[in-house]
Amino acid sequence: MMTRLAATFITLTMAIFMMGCLGKVKYPTYYTLNLPPAVDPPMQAGPRPSIAVREFRSADYLRQGAIVYRRSPEEVGYYNYQRWAVDPRLFVTHAIVDRLRASGRFDTVKIYDGRSDVDLILVGRLEKLDEVDYEGGVRVEVALSAQMTDLRSGKTIWADEASQSDQVDKRTVPAVVAAMSHAMDGALQKLLASMPASIPASPEAHPSQP
């Protein structure tokens, strides 16, 4: 009798333990890119144009919320529990806005809201934000493209693309994200450095909005 009770007790204990293990929920870890703040240069003299930045687009695979890795040029993989806290497209859009404001080239810089009260529109695309795990080692690739259009004439004032690839020191997700942050900063600097140093304001420019 005691043997049966002991066996039953052990069986129940093991069942409860296994149910507890199976019942544990693994929660995702969230990451964000980290860029140095934009440095304000001296403000340019004379009239300056106003500009609005439309939210950047991206390829579908970058819209899933998970950090992306590639084991080959054709394969796209996603980390199951490592995700972006902020949509990378929105992050890049705000980073562009911050840097355009800091450049001193524009009277007003804002997120595009559908209104035509600015001189220029900037549209862009996040082409790559990938961990690359082939061709030896681990690296990250960031690529951006953008163009600036005169809202009234429809003429393209500027268009360019930029990319940067950085090696990852450690095979950990935090190290990958840190490398992505560095590569993103480099790609942004390259992209905006190609922008014309002086862009005249339209003679028919609307007054700046409060």
The number of domains: 1
End-to-end Cα distance, whole Å, is 86 Å
Helical percent range? 25-40%
The H-level CATH homologous superfamily, spelled out, is: ABC-type transport auxiliary lipoprotein component
Encode the helix/strand succession as letters: HEEEEEHEEEEH
Low-confidence stretches: 205-210
Describe the 3D structure.
- This protein has 210 residues and is an alpha/beta fold.
- It has a single domain (29-193), classed as Rossmann fold (3-Layer(aba) Sandwich).
- The chain is built from 3 helices and 9 strands, in the order αβββββαββββα.
- The chain has helices spanning 2-23, 88-103, 173-193, and strands spanning 29-31, 50-53, 57-58, 66-72, 75-84, 108-111, 120-132, 139-150, 156-167.
- Strands 1, 2, 3, 4, 5, 6, 7, 8 and 9 form a 9-stranded mixed beta sheet that branches.
- β7 (120-132) and β8 form a beta hairpin.
- The longest helix has 22 residues, at 2-23.
- The model is unreliable at 205-210 (pLDDT under 50).
